Amino acid sequence: MFQSKKRKALDGVIKQIQVDLANNYKDNAVENLKRLKQETEAANLAGELKPKEFAELTALIEHYENDMKNFKRTY
Asked: How far, in Å, CA of 52 to CA of 28, rounded?
């Protein structure tokens, strides 16, 4: 399956969020989630994502937001 450069970049951010969560780096995970959300919205507005990709990413963002909603800053 071929992916756009933008989708590959977004997948990189997703992998970083997964690493952050696995290592309990809560602040980094929250920051990367914000980045993922902003970049996904920008790519969608620019027409760089297919509707199916945007729907998948939106669902994933909502999943992460629910997982992180009780995180508190550690500093």
From this structure: 27
